[in-house]
DNA sequence: TGTTAGCACTCAACCGCGAAGAGTGCTAAC
DNA sequence: GTTAGCACTCTTCGCGGTTGAGTGCTAACA
């Protein structure tokens, strides 16, 4: 595994290369590393290490006389173990942004999915990447809170249903015109009485017969109404996709080729593909990162996706994904998604400076009691099944690494300060 | 006016230049016109005419030794008088497309705005340009067809309203928890009884008092409910914007510059701007063309907009706009919007070959009795106030012109046939 | 044995130049 | 009024040389 393959120094160099590449988008050369990230090594030494890293598949060269560029494998290691999130977590949205988000996140009945959309907007603004929001739990666990049949005109009515997460949906019912509004209202009341508190699947013929009996409407005549209710549920469970900031793709130099950019934008409009893309990653609550060719959609090989699923009060709202070039600012994206998660999960404000991702290495097992729940879940997901790698060695390695990292960061800051 | 300014030959040459430029996107030179559109003139003569046309502002030169390119003024004249729609009207969507559109256009309650959106999709597919659909009449003329207040939980209810165009909207009501569901239902019934058939503005204190009296609920306690109903109306009248095929902008060579393309795409995402853009043009039923700098939005100076407003059964559905480069295929776009209009207006199928725009020159006053209503309205709008130009001279000129055009077209076809 | 200095080599990016080609405007002849 | 001819303009394209960043390799060094 990686631990055997890469010693500490190689990892530090890899990290430096990727950090620098993310920042500058230029292939990075040995001299740059030696100078900018002064690690007490000459460029020649670093050159040798970089050659090794290339041989191992973590780096590659655009052409012979160019610097190195991270490979997908390199990014993978980076997001799993190398990147440090501390630097990036300082950011906060502007007060206006927050106000806007807060006001729009007011829990508004019938507009549940708005929350995830607003969050998606925020994520896109914070990260400067395109974000995709996918709503819809489609898990059939929600219960009916209230329902009503509204007579519209003879033979035509509207079924309205409110679920326990306050989703509202309506559907048209074409019914036997012989059922007059008054009877329809009685049906409505009976249905409400009998169905409220149940999941839709639990509605059975007995219940329908009971309604039939109480209202004097035959079971057959009742069916359109029941169908209408089912239609509502179907609508409530349909998946919706919102894309925010698609134009931002054009800001990234890797898509300065119009043809490429167009390809991406066309994919972005394919709701079915986006649902696949996002849903595939959103098995659990937590962050999932798919790098370059790791995601299967043809045409997104030069893109990475970071997704986060959100639940509020146990109700799954949906998933937000950030789509950007493989060379994306992973720390920032992870931090932004995490920030929004905290906002969305609501209530529980963490003291300033405390964040749920706090360690430089994501797959460090929770050290002290710093929110182990979230940390644990995250580590699992971010590393995408890297549990097997997180042995004692890894732990040790990472800890040392972190110390070195901090030293490195400090010295860089001093440099910049002058 | 133009008639005095331009003789027939100049107009024919201008038409040829624009037709060719629309087709090839290359600045067109005198030799091209002379050869491709054989009009029995040498390139030198055409050169002189083109120099005149440039002096008059209908053409311009990118640089000294290049061909000519139409100016906005040139396009204006073209869409007003020169373009012939016959060639373009032959197209039909594929059977699958039609089936898809038809099935999705099924008048579905509560999803009224879907129709305009589906139509917009179709337009985008037919024209290969970006289309923008703006829904919402916001004219306050709709009447309440049915309404209902649905108790959800103590102190919380849902107002549902159905308007006479079958728009459905709902809104949350936070009311005095002292009002029990049974009373709420009575309020609902009373409101329905009293308000149905009225416009919202017509709801007055007398009516509210009547409800209060019939239900025993105080006027003050009733107000949240009324507010909820108003909220519904507000939602129903809110304008929605759908953009379809934004990526298509990137196919046009004039936007091969990524910066430019990004600017456009960002504008496309600005709903407020798009509403302004489309609504400004949609004063009447009919087509409106805005060319280049004619539309006021900064950044769309190199774009043209063609909009068409649609009503079904007297209810204004919304407006569809096509946004593309100034060098857009105007005949095709006009034809597509007109085609969709016929579909959307529904029912009345015209015999094959008969179309509501049938003349080569749009501002010809209706000749025989070929659907003068539609034609008349269209001419007014398309020419954007060109009525004053449509005198006897114009008529004469145009008629001759058309004959010449047909000859020209025929000979071109023969050429291509071999 | 690991590290470093030095050097030759590679290759993309840039620049300037000249040739090619399309198209014009002007003039003189028809 | 129309057209042929010609000189002129200006973009586009391809070519070759230069520059500079970065590499790999080798030999010396600690």
Walk me through the topology.
The structure is a homodimer of 418-residue chains.
Chain A: H1 2-5, H2 8-24, H3 30-36, H4 43-55, E1 59-60, E2 69-70, H5 72-82, H6 95-104, H7 112-127, E3 130-135, E4 144-153, E5 156-163, E6 168-174, H8 181-195, H9 205-215, H10 219-237, E7 241-244, H11 258-269, H12 271-281, E8 287-291, E9 303-312, E10 315-325, H13 330-345, H14 372-382, H15 392-417
Antiparallel strand pairs in A: 1-2, 3-7, 3-10, 4-5, 5-6, 8-9, 9-10
Chain A binds a DNA duplex (30 and 30 nucleotides) through residues 27, 29-31, 41-45, 47-48, 50-51, 61-67.
Task: Provide keyphrases for this structure.
three-stranded antiparallel sheet; 3 domains; Arc Repressor Mutant, subunit A; homodimer; Beta-Lactamase; DNA-binding; about 50% helix; five-stranded antiparallel sheet; alpha+beta; Enolase-like, domain 1; about 425 residues; elongated
